[in-house]
Amino acid sequence: MKKIVILGAGTAGTMMLNKLHNLLDKEEWELTIVDEYKTHYYQPGFLFIPFGIYKKQDVIKPKYDFFPPGTNAIFSKIDRVEGENNKVYLENGKVLNYDFLIIATGTQTRPEETPGLKDKLWYKDIFDFYTVEGAVALHKKFKDWEGGELVLCISEVPYKCPVAPLEFVFLAEAYFTKKGIRDKVNITYVTPMSGAFTKPVATKMLSELLEEKNIKIIPDFYLEKVDNENKKIISYDEREIPFDVLTIVPVNMGNDMVERSGLGDDMNFVRTDKFTLQSKDFENIFVLGDAANIPTSKAGSVAHFAGEILTENLLSAMEGRPMTAKFDGHANCYIETGYGKGALIDFNYDTEPLPGTFPLPGIGPFGLLKNTKINHYGKIMFRWIYWHMLLKGRELPIEANMTMAGKKKELI
Amino acid sequence: MKELNINGLKVQLDDEGYLTDSSQWNEDIAKAIAAEDGIELTDKHMEVLKYLRDVFNKGETLTIRKVGKSGIVNIKEFYKLFPKGPLKLASKFAGLQKPSSCV
Question: Which residue of chain A comes nearest to B69, CA vs CA?
Answer without folding.
Answer: A266
